[in-house]
Design goal:
373 residues; mainly alpha; Ammonium transporter fold
Length: 373
């Protein structure tokens, strides 16, 4: 009995078991032990965020400005050959794009993001897809659909499934076919003495519809004229050389990669070459199809859009090849002489599927083992 009444020793009191003070009340555990337990429970904390985890320090505005810089040579050349008419189209398109961006973001109660230059780039790209004869009201319709409908309604930059500038271009092409496909002017110094004429692709379409034959074996001079920009067309598609220089600049600055443009242009060249071999009197040679129309403008500056194109190299090759196939089909068998804009938008729609089946393997992931039969 006395052994039970005997006080516990100091070793037993610090063992974590409550001690009896003689009155039956349990004493709380010593304070030092609580602190020790807290230290054991608190371990290192890691914050896991979404990718990318490593980047080069470029912001969205930096990338947008680099693309604008790459477009400046072609933009300046369009003003040189089409004169004040081209400058008017560019100013109205860019200015209205900025206006619609501000108004839509204010109405939707979102932060105004003019400083990211995305609206400037959209307005410039739309202007370069328009003829110099575009009326002001038609330009406003195009920028409204590009900024408000194709971009802001979906949530703004980064959420749009389709290229905004191309949406504006296609809406105008379908809604106002005469202004977008028939009212082109031939290039002249500062736009002086310019006359209305058809584009090279338009002339082929007219010849085929009238039952005539097409014999376009380009001479060296004709090929150079198409490269330099001595032909009718939209503001941004006339000078292939300047567009190519801008594309090389973007690749050198690692803004875009070669996959989509090369796959796009090569597919058009190969397919049109096959058709030309089958019937050279009905189908123009592949060199003509590559340098005529807006192939370089679309392949370099619009099919490479970050938001609406695949993220992997293999996906970009598939995307570019698909754009080339649709472009050739529309040019040769469709109702419109040009199919670049329609082709890119169609491929924008299946970009999620391309990403799904071409996404790179996650580092450290294992393949799922097949269930035993």
């Amino acid at each position: 009995m006395e052994e039970k009444k005997q006080n516990t020793g100091p070793d037993e009191q610090t063992s974590g078991t409550p001690a009896d003070d003689g009155g039956g009340a349990a004493l709380p555990a010593p304070e030092p032990e609580k602190k020790a337990k807290k230290k054991e429970e608190v371990g290192p904390r890691f914050l896991v965020s979404s990718s990318p985890h490593v980047h080069e320090g470029q912001t969205v505005s930096d990338i947008m400005k680099l693309v604008i810089y790459a477009l400046l040579p072609a933009t300046a050349f369009s003003i040189f050959i089409f004169g004040f008419a081209a400058l008017r189209v560019i100013l109205i398109s860019v200015g209205s794009a900025l206006l619609f961006e501000v108004l839509s973001q204010k109405i939707m109660k979102r932060p105004v993001t003019l400083k990211d230059y995305s609206a400037v780039l959209t307005g410039l790209l739309l202007a370069l897809n328009l003829p110099a004869t575009s009326p002001w009201w038609m330009i406003l319709v195009g920028t409204f659909f590009a900024i408000v409908i194709a971009k802001q309604i979906y949530g703004g930059l980064g959420y749009n499934p389709f290229n905004p500038a191309l949406v504006g271009r296609v809406v105008l092409t379908i809604s106002f076919p005469v202004q977008m496909t028939a009212r082109w002017i031939s290039p002249s110094k500062w736009g002086m003495d310019a006359v209305t004429t058809a584009t090279p692709l338009g002339r082929i379409r007219e010849a085929l519809l009238s039952g005539g034959q097409v014999d376009l074996h380009l001479s060296r001079q004709e090929f150079l004229d198409l490269l330099v920009g001595n032909r009718a067309g939209s503001l941004g598609e006339v000078s292939v050389i300047l567009l190519l220089i801008g594309g090389i600049f973007l690749i050198a600055r690692k803004v875009i990669t070669w996959h989509t443009p090369v796959a796009f242009i090569a597919t058009v060249w190969i397919l049109t070459g096959v058709f030309h071999l089958v019937d050279p009197t009905k189908y123009a040679n592949p060199s003509f199809h590559v340098v005529a129309g807006g192939l370089f403008l679309g392949a370099i500056f619009m099919a490479t859009d970050y938001v609406t194109s695949p993220i992997s190299g293999r996906g970009m090759l598939i995307f570019g090849a698909g754009c080339g196939i649709f472009t050739v089909v529309i040019r040769l068998f469709g109702s419109y002489p040009e199919g670049v804009s329609f082709a890119i938008l169609l491929m924008n729609g299946i970009t999620p599927l391309i990403d799904r089946y071409t996404k790179p393997k996650v580092f450290g992931a294992r393949k799922k083992e097949k269930a035993a039969a």
